């Protein structure tokens, strides 16, 4: 033993101590170099951003911006002015008279009034057509001409003359996007709305609407609403894949406009919380991050001593820097990162592992040699112990899982069997003579038998899937029918236990290639789980909708929830979250594992979002873009 200690362990201990000292010193030097490098990068980034933002602040603080006019800098989202502590958004800043100015010509206004009295005063719409036609011929400006032709086309449509109406609307669609009606809505957008509702429309309709929206720095709520109706209509009535793709692109554009409008309105309510109106913030190089679509917001005293709020789309400025320097920016309070200083309160730069130092300093061959020597020596003495520990741990874990599974399955089988036997014996002894009660008892027995059958099927399905013997019969399946069938199967247990099932099913989804029975089993398992773990809550939501290029089935409850550390294991076989509340709920730990295997066989994904005490949401995501291809599981 003394020779072993002297020959092996003593040199090993000395080697370890010396290696640790060298590695510690090297790590300290590397940390110093890394910190200095990061300070240099952050200083350069801060100066670069401030130079760009101050140029934007200087150029965009104007009061003469007209509706439809673009900002000088493409990164600018909007410039709003403060009036009595409230943010006046761009579409609110222009007085109503300004959008009506081209129509303030007294003869033109009188002509519009006369024609509208003819159209709506009891006469037929056909009687107003010549009036609007004459009004368009006598218009003095392009705005008056376009508006008169819009009213003319509307009257033609009401009179049943759809062909000349369509020709007029197509002419208006091709007109300038800057020409608006008295409410500031582009006339071309009105024409696009009519053409989208009509049976025949030009193939370039989506691109034209895109061009009208892109020509404006912002969209008023009225413009966003009208464009949203157009996009939804084009998506629903697309005649081919190319039209559907263009319509989807338009819908994404419109959704971005709506989100921009909403975030701008939220900003109005958050001005005081963000401290943007404090006197010490005005005209200082301070830019506050805000919102989901990250914005940088600055405040400045503009013309006539008015305070302006400048909103810049942060990603347009930050993404080139992220790509060039190998870092990313975030405003999340819990994120790790380096602050950009008081000029950007709350904004942090997170360095990538390989991007915060020059390439030569990250490859330290000497330190790798130390680690290799220590690992080789340590591996020789610890490998045998590790193998023994691993085998013992695995055997113990398998024994625990088997015992838990047998106990859980026994309990799950015993409960419905007990109920069936009790109700059957009661009926056999003739104690229940009321036909309604007899029917209720028989219905309960039937449902308990179905519950027992589902449990047995679940165990058998899992056994086949675990052994790779489960065969799927793929065919075109409408998910709407599958989801409704699963809900019907659990209608009685839900009603018996007082649950309220909120179903939100989007219609018109394309069929997917799937095994309908397997998918229904997966949805049944999620609904059963929601019933088990709802606690005192009796609300369950079942949703089917489109998400990106796939379809999503969501099951949500407001019950016990899942701890964060257990969420990554809930789809493992036999696993159950080790909380006191969960242990009181009977279960086998197979339901979610079977769901994961079924979804994986359908080339989909399943995920969980949960907050302890507030409930859980399980989502099945299935691809639909390749549903015409043959599946290898057929």
CATH architecture of the domain at 96-267: Alpha Horseshoe
Unreliably modeled segments: 354-363, 627-634
* Largest sheet, strands/sense/barrel: 5 strands, antiparallel
Query: Could you give the order of strands across the largest sheet?
Result: 2-1-5-4-3
Number of β-strand runs: 15
Shape: flat
Which band does the percent of strand residues land in?
5-15%
CATH topological fold name of the domain at 96-267:
Serine Threonine Protein Phosphatase 5, Tetratricopeptide repeat
Average pLDDT score: 79
Radius of gyration using CA atoms only: 34 Å
Query: What top-tier CATH class of the domain at 96-267 fits best?
Result: Mainly Alpha
CA-to-CA gap between the ends? Answer: 66 Å
In DSSP terms, counting alpha (H) and pi (I) runs of 4 or more, how many helices?
21
**Class based on secondary structure composition and strand pairing:** alpha+beta
Name the helicity range. 55-70%
């Amino acid at each position: 033993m003394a020779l072993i200690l002297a020959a092996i362990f003593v040199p090993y201990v000395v080697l370890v101590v010396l290696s640790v000292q060298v590695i510690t010193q090297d790590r300290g030097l590397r940390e110093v170099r890394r910190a200095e490098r990061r300070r240099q990068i952050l200083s350069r980034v801060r100066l670069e951003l401030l130079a760009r933002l101050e140029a934007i602040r200087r150029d965009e603080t104007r009061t003469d911006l007209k509706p439809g006019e673009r900002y000088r800098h493409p990164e600018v989202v909007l410039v709003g002015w403060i009036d009595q502590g409230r943010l006046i958004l761009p579409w609110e800043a222009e007085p109503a008279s300004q959008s009506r100015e081209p129509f303030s010509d007294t003869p033109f206004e009188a002509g519009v009034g006369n024609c509208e009295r003819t159209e709506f005063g009891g006469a037929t719409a056909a009687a107003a057509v010549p009036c609007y036609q004459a009004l368009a011929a006598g218009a003095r400006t392009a705005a008056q001409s376009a508006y008169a032709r819009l009213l003319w086309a509307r009257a033609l449509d009401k009179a049943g003359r759809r062909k000349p109406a369509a020709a007029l609307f197509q002419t208006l669609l091709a007109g300038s996007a800057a020409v608006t009606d008295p409410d500031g809505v582009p006339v071309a957008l009105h024409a696009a709305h009519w053409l989208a509702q009509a049976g025949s429309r030009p193939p370039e309709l989506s691109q034209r609407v895109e061009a009208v929206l892109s020509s404006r720095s912002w969209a008023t709520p009225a413009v966003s609403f009208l464009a949203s109706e157009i996009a939804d209509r084009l998506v629903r009535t697309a005649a081919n894949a190319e039209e559907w793709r263009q319509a989807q692109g338009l819908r994404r554009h419109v959704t971005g406009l709506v989100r921009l409008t909403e975030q701008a309105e939220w900003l109005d309510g958050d001005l005081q919380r963000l401290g943007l109106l404090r006197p010490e913030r005005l005209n200082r190089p301070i830019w506050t991050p805000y919102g989901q679509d990250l914005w940088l917001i600055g405040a400045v005293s503009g013309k006539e001593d008015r305070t302006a709020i400048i909103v810049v789309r942060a990603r347009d400025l930050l993404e080139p820097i992220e790509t060039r320097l190998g870092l990313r920016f975030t405003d999340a309070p819990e994120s790790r990162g380096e602050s950009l200083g008081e000029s950007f309160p709350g904004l942090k730069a997170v360095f990538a592992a390989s991007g915060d130092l020059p390439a030569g300093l990250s490859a330290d061959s000497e330190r790798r040699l130390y680690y290799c020597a220590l690992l080789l020596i340590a591996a020789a003495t610890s490998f045998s112990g590790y193998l023994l520990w691993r085998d013992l741990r695995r055997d113990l874990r398998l024994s625990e899982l088997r015992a838990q599974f047998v106990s859980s399955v026994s309990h799950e089988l015993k409960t419905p069997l007990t109920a069936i036997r009790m109700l059957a014996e009661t009926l056999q002894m003739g104690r229940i003579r009321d036909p309604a009660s007899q029917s209720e008892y028989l219905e309960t027995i039937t449902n308990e038998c179905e519950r027992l059958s589902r449990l047995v099927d679940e165990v058998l399905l899992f056994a086949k899937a675990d052994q790779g013997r489960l065969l799927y019969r793929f065919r075109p399946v409408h998910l709407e029918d599958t989801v409704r069938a699963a809900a019907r199967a659990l209608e009685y247990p839900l009603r018996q236990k007082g649950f309220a099932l909120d179903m939100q099913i989007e219609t018109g989804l394309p069929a997917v290639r799937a095994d309908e029975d397997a998918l229904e089993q997966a949805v049944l398992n999620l609904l059963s789980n929601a019933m088990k773990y709802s606690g005192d809550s009796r609300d369950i939501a079942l949703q089917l909708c489109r998400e990106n290029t796939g379809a999503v089935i969501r099951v949500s409850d407001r019950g016990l929830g899942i701890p964060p550390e257990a969420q990554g294991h809930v789809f493992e076989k036999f696993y159950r979250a080790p909380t006191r509340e969960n242990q009181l709920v009977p279960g086998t730990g197979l339901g979610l594992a079977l769901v994961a295997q079924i979804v994986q066989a359908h080339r989909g994904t399943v995920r969980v979002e949960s907050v302890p005490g507030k409930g859980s949401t399980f989502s099945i995501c299935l691809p639909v873009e390749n549903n015409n291809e043959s599946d290898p599981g057929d």
